[in-house]
## 1
Amino acid sequence: MHASKYHINTLKEAPAEAEVKSHQLMTRAGMIRKAAGGIYTYMPMGLKVLRKIEAIVRDEMNKAGAIELLMPVVQPAELWVESGRWEQYGGELLRIKDRHNRDFVLQPTSEEVITDIARNEIHSWRQLPLNFYHIQTKFRDERRPRFGLMRGREFTMKDAYSFDRDEASAQASYDAMFEAYMRIFGRLGLEFRAVAADTGSIGGSRSHEFQVIADTGEDLIVYNPASPYAANLELAEAPCLIAERGPATENLAKTATPDAPKCEIVAEQLSRPLTDTVKCIVLATEVEGKPEETRIWLLLLRGDHELNEVKTGKLPGFENGYRFATEDEILETFGCIPGYLGPISPVKPITVIADRTVANMSNFICGANEQGYHYTGANWGRDLPEPQVSDLRNVIAGDPDPQGGNLALQRGIEVGHVFFLGDKYSKALGATFLEKDGKPAMLQMGCYGIGISRISAAAIEQNHDDKGIIWPLAIAPFEVVICPMGLQKSETVRNASEWLYQELQAAGVDVILDDRDTRPGIMFADWELIGVPLRITIGDRGLKDNVLEIQARRDDSAAKVPVEEALSHILDRLKSL
Amino acid sequence: MHASKYHINTLKEAPAEAEVKSHQLMTRAGMIRKAAGGIYTYMPMGLKVLRKIEAIVRDEMNKAGAIELLMPVVQPAELWVESGRWEQYGGELLRIKDRHNRDFVLQPTSEEVITDIARNEIHSWRQLPLNFYHIQTKFRDERRPRFGLMRGREFTMKDAYSFDRDEASAQASYDAMFEAYMRIFGRLGLEFRAVAADTGSIGGSRSHEFQVIADTGEDLIVYNPASPYAANLELAEAPCLIAERGPATENLAKTATPDAPKCEIVAEQLSRPLTDTVKCIVLATEVEGKPEETRIWLLLLRGDHELNEVKTGKLPGFENGYRFATEDEILETFGCIPGYLGPISPVKPITVIADRTVANMSNFICGANEQGYHYTGANWGRDLPEPQVSDLRNVIAGDPDPQGGNLALQRGIEVGHVFFLGDKYSKALGATFLEKDGKPAMLQMGCYGIGISRISAAAIEQNHDDKGIIWPLAIAPFEVVICPMGLQKSETVRNASEWLYQELQAAGVDVILDDRDTRPGIMFADWELIGVPLRITIGDRGLKDNVLEIQARRDDSAAKVPVEEALSHILDRLKSL
């Protein structure tokens, strides 16, 4: 490609609304242009990145035996009603009506359509296993779209769906996809981690997320630097930090703690470590239409720990969701305002659930259910009944890993997700097949997503500097840019540039020759912003000494290379990037 | 690809609603599955066809210097309001609302978005010419979607938009696209014709359609077998069939023509040729909100000719559209019911427009504005004033071409369309650039569409037989199928089949090996239905004689070829397909 025949339009300033680096840099580099909130045009170089990501994903999906098809963007509501998601899905599902007032959705995902296809196409165990995927435009009507391609409304996703005879075979399909994902993210050239994850609204019983490591990521990953263990903070099991409960050596004593509605303040007032305090969280569960069945729960965490809301949502009795209790409910239950609550003698009976660590604490400090007072020296069994025990908290850095070593935390951007669905959708839509014995059986499913457009943004969040983007070679819009100095004036420079351009093209390198009439400073700044991995500078001064300059985007300085060695040097350098 | 690892599911019967061959055959061959009316899933082989078409289109667009980008499916209404099409476009434009009740459209075409991009991206004449294209999902909310991919609601289209400094440069861009389209449809292996066409609702001043020739096509093409001339019937100029008006030799006579409201019956009653009669068409034009400005027009055609509604719409005074006059309007104007109307002495004064041929008729027959009576011997100038003259009729087969020879008619399916837009959209959206002299000038535009998914259907309408589809090689889901006879039982057959499969793959042939456990009759029928261009049959009997069988889909019988010559024979045969 010659730049003069291409469209390059970099911007000095990012739009004010662009909060994250990838949004700023993709806009400044001219890779995306906003059409509406969360809806973008992929400009030529942005589309090239997208296509390179797609090609790697497609190649590995095909190698893993998945079969590509293409399901529609506009899907009939009937199937979503059948699966129950027409009701369950929130405002992010864009529901539309056609000219005949019939209901449709703009697909955010395609479980319903593929299961409908499966129930019509799959008749016999002989056809199984099958894995269908497509790479298609999705729509998710975010309430407040922002962060550019990190969380757009219209986006490109690869979603695959496996169909198997039984759970063992479905697990094998899941494992094959897991391995394919490892290869995909490896080939993309990104630092990533596969982490055990919650199944969320997709449902199913097992799942892993593929997270691109980046400080700006929205997700927190718990991992063990010394082992392969990694899990999303939502799911990561928090160990009990006290191996055995110590003896009750202190007496229970009500102590004045004026203006101390937080554990940190109480610990300070009493000159005790924060780890001696217990935090109270009051929750309510209710049954729709039955206010008399509203139930109040008291969850206890050590003062330095945080509640994990996903784990909470999985507690027995919390199946229909939960909320934080209102101040009225708290007053009525504890006879006290928040800040001084505790598990000892509330006004009304209540179910107490203690985090594993809290359950092994002794001589602990908790609210006295009286404004301005806390108990010290509280002990299970002696001062209050033994609690129900559960893992309620988020892991914190340094927590011991039961398998050895200590856990650490890092931030990540979710770019892939694999789910073991079981028969959730096949049951809802009645997708059965005939087993060898002639009897109908339910298809076992898995689903596997990769956020194609989000990967382009995640790659930038992970790889950028003050000058701009630093693309991994595999997904760079161009692999090499040739920057001639004064091509318009010097025939020598023009000829050398065109020669190298032809040679690189012939060698299969994705190269662009910047033949625009631009000053070197602007030219270099453009390509540093755009983030092309390797830049070749060709000028009269160098050519006099028979050399040209090679500089990788991450390099501090350029290497001078004899012209006749340039091609092999560039090809070698590309291999090392 | 091995068939056992793929998904092949042919059907004996097409769905009852499938009216056209392509819809029936694509469904039966398992290439598409219906998700909703006019909305389909492209099954694996259907998608392969689509991708091959896309690849050819993309390659030729790139070679012609067009730059690929990707505009969104969901587009903000604001831009459509700005262009005026939010109001003008009919019910086919699917208008939707997001969760915040903001208006959007599902794009049927992208003039607005690309012009918005152009006005922001193009600042200087130095950037021009530019041609952007994308291959994207479109939506057109057809009132009654049918004919499968021939006229779907959700479909894939390539649309390109050129931007130029002036009309001459824009014409060069148009011509370059025209040539690229000639190469594209040539490479697709389809019999096609580029025809001059009307610009319709897209607007602009010049356009050509690319029509795939097929008896089932909706469009009528006028062409000259002896010259390159071809035009859509809508646009094709109809010659005057009477070089010079003959003398008035008959007297005007009112003649009884009872129960003869049609020219054919009048001619029969009077024993005169149909070509002596004149047909009356009464139209009305009106100005919205001004009923007093409704105007009645009388259009005259020779008895054997048909009105061309597109030409009519372009008559001076018809700029705001027209309609057929109501029976009340006709009675009021002519004092007579339809069937006996004529241009001589209507009750009210009226503008008469005669088709070119009618204007040169003499001694003609027309209604007498009295029920049951016609005039014979009518002559212009003597019996009624000279009319306004225009080309009003459709060409009919055999009409002389003014350039020599005679015109013929054939049916076609429109699969591509190029438009010279001028400044229609750049003016509406204010898309200007700075000319060399520093003054702002309006961008000159062209737009260029190709119906990717429709091509797959058109190819079938043109190429099929009783057994199924006959794909042109370039867009066949597979180029070659290997059909082993009894692969499950014979190791010799299995080894020979696998060997040939590997050899063909290594030679870059898109080959599928049918290793399913299927009876030969079913296997052959499947591949004839699917329409793979070349079939290789390998069986124990042939292998004993060291031969295998090669049969092209269009061949009546198979050729026996020695095994060691098979590869070169197949490669040669593919070249000739």
Note: The longest helix of chain B spans residues 167-187.
## 2
Amino acid sequence: MNPLSSPLLADFYQFTMLQTYLEQEMQQIAVFELFVRKLPPGRNFLVAVGLEQVLEFLENLKFSDEELDWLATRFPPHVINYLEHFHFEGDVHAMPEGTIFFPNEPILRITAPLPQAQLVESRIINLMHFETLIASKATRSVLVAPDKLLVDFGMRRAHGAEAGLLASRASYLAGFSGTATVLAGALYDIPVYGTMAHSFIQAHSYESTAFEHFARSHPDNTILLIDTYDTEAAAVKVVILADKLKADKIRIKGVRLDSGDLAEFAINVRQILNKGGLEKAIIFASGNLDEYRLHDLLSSNVPIDGFGIGTALDISSDAPSLDCVYKLQEYAGKPRRKRSEGKATWPGRKQIYRSYGDDGCMAGDIVALEENDPQEGERLIQLVMRAGRRLRPNQSLHEMRHLTIANYRRLPVSMAALEPAPMYRVSISVALQALANQLDMEQVSLDQEISQTRQHIKQYVE
Amino acid sequence: MNPLSSPLLADFYQFTMLQTYLEQEMQQIAVFELFVRKLPPGRNFLVAVGLEQVLEFLENLKFSDEELDWLATRFPPHVINYLEHFHFEGDVHAMPEGTIFFPNEPILRITAPLPQAQLVESRIINLMHFETLIASKATRSVLVAPDKLLVDFGMRRAHGAEAGLLASRASYLAGFSGTATVLAGALYDIPVYGTMAHSFIQAHSYESTAFEHFARSHPDNTILLIDTYDTEAAAVKVVILADKLKADKIRIKGVRLDSGDLAEFAINVRQILNKGGLEKAIIFASGNLDEYRLHDLLSSNVPIDGFGIGTALDISSDAPSLDCVYKLQEYAGKPRRKRSEGKATWPGRKQIYRSYGDDGCMAGDIVALEENDPQEGERLIQLVMRAGRRLRPNQSLHEMRHLTIANYRRLPVSMAALEPAPMYRVSISVALQALANQLDMEQVSLDQEISQTRQHIKQYVE
């Protein structure tokens, strides 16, 4: 059982429901859409990421003998027979990765026989929710510091290995420069950064020896960590070492600060480096950083050239989850609508149309029905998988990253800021509203059932 | 490259440092300890979990050809040669899983040649940090609702698949009853729970048909979801259905509420079920729950028998990370101490001694040196791996769960509550304090180096 691709990455109810669907011959086409119900506090928009992993999961979905054996202890033979031949045969529509989106706009649609579409729910949410969460968080640092080196430092405190890896991918796609996580570099071809930890300095008797040892091993990657004992004294050691290394044509590339008052240290260290002839050496900062700290440092013109962002990025610390759901919108050709208070959904298969103003900036979206409801604007939802097979060769991560950064240029200025912006305009098309109303009217049979049952309640409640 | 066991699950600096260690022949024994610097707000203690996954990682650590090929594009041949034969040969000391612990108490110690001990840092933190985080969160629900059915519902919004799986394991070890995540059940032998989603109800034209279909498929697992349309009306349908199913000897086991005012609905639904002769049917609740909501519901005696806890559990929503670090405490036989302001560490290899009062409750801990510093109390740190091999067969998860629950009985009453308790007493032994002072004194050479360098600063700063 592969923990990252097993079809048992599902909630148990997906299998109990599946059994009933099979027994009741409920295998007609179901349409589920994935969307976020509301923005978390402090976010003006979200960035859709995770589609690649979803498509890979769906394309390779099958049950191993071991998985079937486990299920056979809980489900009858006809369920196991069905699962033995299971593969995903549905269609997937989605926004391209890196698309900016808003609440109630579907970012992914699954169209498949009901048991299939239901079975894949939990892992689809699990993948899209997390990567979208992290990309949306990373975007904020990219918007605050567009010209700085931004590196994902968060794997150690990410929630497990997959979170660390997908956080590297999502943040790179959102515009980060790279990651410290080696495996993310190897798997996704993301630039990898890193030099030394405090333990490296401490394992040496002298800090200056540690610096020199490192520089001699890594003449092209000499970013020296200078805050283990006395940051300014260490900056002077760097200057002295740079002089010494000139003879061997080794150049000090920069220094890293990881604690203390970053603003004060950066200013003093910059001065020391400059006076020591190391004007080109960069200052890289890390340690409890997030987009707010970046904003504070950069708006006071603190001379820092790059940032390592760890925990706050990989767990999206100020908003560690999204209210992300996967809802049935149609079954057997009939649109469905959940009417629960505050949780009502827009029924049917939907398309999003985005308009742009004369300045090129996003000016408003319309949520419309996919069919017979044409609107002005760019269509955001595309067919990406037909009958279980991906439609076209994937874009590279680098290409998607460029497109994502291009999308930021079309954000209205207020929305690109960290502060809350006026709500972006997302309208519901007349036809979609009419369909929702019509469904509510048609649900008379359901209402009659409820009101008949309510009569009975009197028997039970005085 | 296996994303969950690859030795590339490391920060890049672990490899750059390794190269220098090899080139400088720095392969003597290093001692690193893992500890948490401070409690997150709202926690009175933490519960150590994740050791099993760490030992498995260390025992199986080796480089594949593919991994070596990738590294060979960045590191010289002598590094690749070393890694080709790499396996972890160190010792591991740790607290047993399920041990209650406090800031500055090491929960894991690695004793290994420096390049080995350094290479495994990031994945060790990644595993121990997350499982400890989740077990510590789960414990709070178990303490609030010790006699209720508590089920992990959080996989879909956990941060990736591994987080979902490890959250099931950590919460079960901490006393939860089980999980909804099928793969966690299959991998760890955790009880698995689940019946139906709203989409199941919506795919049927009538709610009562959905209920009956499910009951006929799953006569032993009929927990019916009753909040899709009108919760109380649905409860009446359940009573009517129960009557109808008696002929077929099918018993309704219970109902689930997932939205609305859970207290009000539970009280009304209980009344309907009781008057309908379903006194034994349980009420299970889910939907945005955490330990605070459980506490509110149970302290008002709301008749709920079990809870599904999702997002808040799997992301530890109120404290999604711990200040968890892995620090060099000794190298080449010499204790090391990081002296940075506010981040000073206690040097050397340590043992924790725990005392209990006459009432059997925990009364205080002493952090002492492992050798020649005997103290009263229970020793919490044990040798669990010697020279890269585990010492004894693992305890089962079920056994660890029982021991964990037994540990809760020894918590002082105030610490077992949700509210902040007075700080638990953790003292530093006289010998450990003396060692720290002695190291500070001995670091005169380092201080001299710094003060000499500080002289130079004048050249650079006016």
Note: The two ends of chain A are 54 Å apart (CA to CA).
